[in-house]
Amino acid sequence: MSGPILQVNELSVRYPVGARWLQAVDAVSFSIDRGETLGMVGESGSGKSTIAQALLHLVPASGGSVVFRGARWLELGRNELRKSRKHIQIIFQDPLASLDPRMTVGELIGEPLKEHRPDLGRAERLERIVSMMERVGLARAHLNRYPHEFSGGQAQRIGIARALMLEPQLLVCDEPLSALDVSIRSQVAMLLKDLQRQLELAILFIAHDLASVRFSCDRVLVLYLGRVMEIAPRDALFGKPRHPYTAALLQAVPIADPVRAKARRISPLGGEIPSPLTPPSGCVFRTRCPLAAPRCAQERPALRQVGASVLACHFAEQTQLAR
Ligand code: ATP
Ligand code: MG
User: Is any atom of ligand 1 closer than 6 Å to the C-beta of 49?
Assistant: First the structure.
């Protein structure tokens, strides 16, 4: 790892809803180093996919900046973007829905090359396709098959191969394992990890499932209602969660052992997520926070470093004591 390949500064995205604006992402900052996997977690609607889409230029940012490979990524002109777009690729939750059912596996994996590397001859293209298929665990014999002939896990391998064909430097994975059977999740997670090591890929790994984040990620960003609550190295986050929301998310994972479950001091995450159209004043998590105090309604907490974590909580220094 050697310095950030992606630097996101105060990124904001809003959607028009009727006559109002819904602030889906609110001044979010983070970075990803070369070869690093950053996990992004948070309940449904926290803005994870919107951040991914903004990085891919699929939705416009309403504020902030993104520096990718040393250039201001959101301001690239059309021509520059056409050339540079291949450096960030995405894989989605539902592999089958994102693959054209009329194309064969070979065509699907080879399509990005056709567009971006028209200089390659047929034979060389085929060679690259087959070598990528082998890399992701597909056989040459699958070349002329169609995506619907594959299981979810195999289809996700096709999606991964297609995304990696142009040797991107950042791979955005938006819930890549959620739609897969539990039994094959770990295989695909393992594959992503191996590929990352071999290719020195940076990965933004969006997930609900904390176990897969723990397995796959070097650092983790916790998002709530479009804002960063905490960013911490994996072991610090799981071993010593500092933000009350992070702690609640971890505790919301079911505990099988009833004695340990009873010993929990903070109740698992309860209550409704407020509407993003009318977010709470001050700290957006305060309406569900066990530590909330009057100050939390008045002042938006800034992100600051405490121990190994960066977190947005007025009581950052005391959260460990409170539990
Ligand atoms: P999930 O875990 O369910 O995938 P998410 O964290 O990916 O959720 P987003 O899909 O980014 O969340 O949504 C963030 C917020 O923006 C939500 O309140 C959502 O309803 C809203 N939103 C997303 N897309 C649009 C859209 N096209 N128009 C209006 N609002 C949108
Ligand atoms: Mg999403």
Answer: yes
Ligand 1: which residue has its CA nearest to atom 20?
45
129 within 8 A of 143, measured Cβ to Cβ: yes
Task: Specify the DSSP class assigned to residue 177.
Answer: S
List, as one string, the DSSP characters of 63-123: EEEEEETTEEGGG--HHHHHHHGGGEEEE-S-TTTTS-TTS-HHHHHHHHHHHH-TTS-HH
Domains of the chain, CATH where assigned: 4-217 (3.40.50.300), 241-323 (no CATH)
Place of tokens 């396709």: 129
Confidence grade of residue 266 (pLDDT, cut at 50, 70, 90): very low
The predicted-structure confidence for 97-125, as pLDDT tens digits, reads as follows: 889 999 999 999 999 998 888 999 999 99
Residue 42 has pLDDT above 90, yes or no: yes
Cβ distance 228 to 70 under 8 Å?
no
Atom of ligand 1 nearest to the CA of 16: 29
Q: Is the CB of residue 225 less than 8 Å from the CB of residue 276? A: yes
CA–centroid distance for 269 within its chain: 22
Q: What global pTM score does this model have?
A: 0.92
